[in-house]
Design brief:
It contains four helices and no strands. The protein is mostly helical.
Length: 64
């Protein structure tokens, strides 16, 4: 069951990259691996912002 779940997660990630599993399996060149790495970094890029529960503390983080 876990193997199928992980497989679906990999397929969903590949779909975001615009690749198929067969393209990934045949990916042997350096350029192809760099393309996969670049797409992975794009997906993982998150603009984290601090979140505060207390209004006084949140005023410290506001950028005007």
């Amino acid at each position: 069951m876990y193997r199928m779940l992980v497989g679906l997660m990999v397929l969903a990630a590949l779909e975001q990259f615009g690749m198929t599993f067969s393209e990934l399996a045949s990916c042997r060149s350096r350029a192809c691996l760099q393309k996969v790495q670049r797409h992975a970094l794009d997906v993982l890029q998150i603009d984290w912002k601090p979140m505060s529960v207390w209004p006084e503390e949140s005023k410290k983080f506001k950028h005007d």
